[in-house]
Amino acid sequence: MNRSMINAANTMNGLQQQLDLISHNVSNSSTIGYKRQEANFNSLLYQQFATPVDDTRGNEGRKTPSGIREGVGATLGHTSTDNELGSLTTTKRDLDVALYKKGYFFSIATKDGIKYTRDGAFNLSQVDENSVMLVTGDGNPVLDENGETIIIPSNYQKISFTSQGELAVYGEDETVPLNVYDLGIAYAQKPALLMRDGDNFFSAPTEQGIENPMLNISGQERSQIGLEQGVLEQSNVNIGDELANMLNAQRAYQFNAKSITLSDQMLGLINTMR
């Protein structure tokens, strides 16, 4: 009876974490460039209760162990990120850009180092009387391919992005750009190694011995980027799927809670027997 209660309690703990993930996905269903998270469960260690082998009963050649295996529940093994593209929404805003190929990220400077995001809703922040800086919605500087901030003359008249991630700034003469910048764009060779840091940011692991999954794109490789101006990538969260997953997790949670209740009642009956 105690084992059945432990089994159910361990599983309920993992299901609670899954519900938290689903809630996080639903709350970010309108977040630009957000990538949904998935819960992956593993079975906990089990114990093998063996029974004596009786060759007279035809156990010779048996492929499975004799006896039973009794586990202690399941746990949330790890969470994974669904990197599929979200839908693209046209905004016609010059500073809105979207990467329409998965695995590519914008490089952003934060107080904790370089982070990566799919959110291309950029803005301009005043630096001085003569220049402005390209930043994210939270004010973090957007980097170029050399890891430098992008400073634009404040007297610009037009901003244009190319599919290769180039930012061209024009003055009164819209045929000759004042400056051309290469946006800092990185490709995740092993997206499973990326760490989620909150605020819709990802970061590369810094532990020794772990390969950096991010590859900075430069030169001829930039032709593979795929960027579109006046468009934003929406979250790839499907509300219908998330609600279905939530219902399944809640039912499994209730089933395990009921299992604990029944085990407790049976223990009560045993204690009252004379």
What does this structure look like?
- This protein has 274 residues and is of the alpha+beta class.
- The chain is built from two helices and 20 strands.
- It has helices at residues 2-27, 239-272; strands spanning 37-43, 46-49, 68-71, 74-81, 88-90, 97-99, 104-110, 113-117, 123-128, 131-135, 151-153, 158-161, 166-170, 177-182, 185-188, 195-198, 201-203, 214-216, 227-229, 231-233.
- It has a four-stranded antiparallel beta sheet with strand order 8-7-15-18, with no helix packed on it. A three-stranded antiparallel beta sheet has the order 9-10-11, with no helix packed on it. It has a three-stranded antiparallel beta sheet with strand order 12-13-14, with no helix packed on it.
- Helix 1 runs antiparallel to helix 2 (239-272).
- The longest helix is centred in the C-terminal third of the chain and has 34 residues, at 239-272.
